[in-house]
TrEMBL record:
InterPro entries: Arginase, Ureohydrolase, Ureohydrolase_dom_sf. Its cofactor is Mn(2+). GO terms for molecular function: arginase activity; manganese ion binding. The keyword Transport does not apply. GO terms for cellular component: cytosol; nucleus. This is Arginase. Binds 2 manganese ions per subunit. Gene3D superfamilies: Ureohydrolase domain. It catalyses: L-arginine + H2O = urea + L-ornithine. Pathway: Nitrogen metabolism; urea cycle; L-ornithine and urea from L-arginine: step 1/1. Keywords: Arginine metabolism, Hydrolase, Manganese, Metal-binding, Urea cycle. Mn(2+) binds at residues 118, 141, 143, 145, 249, 251. GO terms for biological process: L-arginine catabolic process to proline via ornithine; urea cycle. It comes from Pyrocoelia pectoralis.
Length: 343
């Protein structure tokens, strides 16, 4: 039975989990690539119980759902830039999303953005930088997403966000009409990749020549996920003072465990590694924004979709402090009258 010391210990544990305020925004955007369905992910994730899963992590979680991003396009800039498909859509959605992310952060909440394809991260990272200038970015992905319109073989914008965000790449772009609000102020020194295993040749050249911090699957294999996350954070946030942004592409997870995604790649992170990565980042206490992108509920069987959505929710929950060890009971719930059964 719990004695008074036991109750005191429980109170200490309870108080140790600090108040966490989360702001959720859905981005039903899929025009950064060519496959239909990824825009339905916010609805499917909410229908699968995302918001309740967050509320149940611990009793000091407060969740506000800001709804979905809407936007209207400027037809004058369609086809304005070569080899950038549906450019005018990305521009309009990104502008609205960046504002929303800034607002959520200024409300004192951690921003959880549910994509949508990965092109939306141009906006989430920009909105984060607007609110908190000193940002470190972890890009968890099978792909490097650092093509420009000149190096991309597809013209898909979801392969370009890192190149749009970083100042070292800014000289490689033509003038981008409608994007004047977005300043590529982030240094590539503040970006680290984890999970890479499908990197285009120009992307590899950039990563090598610019010395970009990148833990591909070889490094995950060699050092283990725990070391990789710690080393990545040391590289991009050596003073342990930056506001951390995690842009998590579900295709970083092996396609056996997260099959419903547009560009699946085998040999990826296990769900366990994805969860552990987020647990490490949670423990920094400096996580401000998460993107969870590229879940496509139109790909695969219902079982495939269920697997992928539940993997995504597990990863998000870990980022907000879900404990695989279990949490002790709240003091109010203690069975004072009824001792716990020994069986
Ligand atoms: Mn990606």
């Amino acid at each position: 039975m719990f004695n008074r010391v036991g109750v005191r210990l429980i109170n200490q544990v309870r108080n140790a989990s600090s108040k966490t305020e989360i702001g959720v925004v859905g981005v039903p955007f899929e025009k950064g690539q060519r496959k239909v369905g990824v825009g339905n992910a916010p609805k499917v994730m909410r229908d699968a119980g995302l918001i309740n899963s967050l509320k149940q992590i611990h009793d000091k979680i407060d969740v506000k759902d800001y709804g979905d991003i809407t936007y209207s396009i400027d037809h004058d800039i369609s086809n304005a830039v070569p080899n950038m498909i549906m450019y005018e859509h990305m521009v309009a959605c990104a502008k609205a999303l960046s504002k929303q992310v800034t607002e959520i952060l200024n409300d004192g909440r951690i921003c959880l953005t549910i994509g949508g394809d990965h092109s939306i991260a141009v906006a989430t990272v920009d909105g984060h930088i607007q609110a908190k200038s000193n940002v470190a970015l972890l890009w968890i992905d099978a792909h490097a997403d650092i093509n420009t319109n000149l190096t991309s073989t597809s013209g898909n914008l979801h392969g370009m966000p890192v190149a749009l965000l970083t100042k070292e790449l800014s000289d490689y772009w033509p003038y981008l009409p409608g994007m004047d609000w977005q300043k590529p102020v982030m240094s590539i020194r503040n970006v680290a990749y984890i999970g890479l295993r499908s990197v285009d040749s120009f992307e590899r050249l950039l990563i090598d020549n610019m010395g970009i911090t990148a833990f591909g699957m070889e490094e995950v294999e060699k050092f283990g996920i725990d070391q990789c996350v710690h080393m990545a954070l040391e590289k991009i946030d050596p003073t342990h003072s930056k506001s951390i942004h995690v842009s998590f592409d579900i295709d970083s997870i092996d396609s056996l465990e997260a099959p419903s995604t547009g560009t699946p790649v085998r040999g990826g992170l296990t769900l366990r590694e994805g969860i552990h990565l987020m647990e490490v980042i949670h423990k920094t206490g400096r996580l401000s924004a998460i993107d969870l992108v590229e879940v496509n509920p139109s790909i695969g069987t219902k079982h495939n979709v269920d697997l992928t959505v539940s993997a995504a929710i597990h990863i998000i929950a870990a980022a907000f402090g879900y404990s695989r060890k279990g949490l002790r009971p709240k003091v109010d719930d203690l069975p004072i009258q009824t001792p716990p059964s020994s069986t």
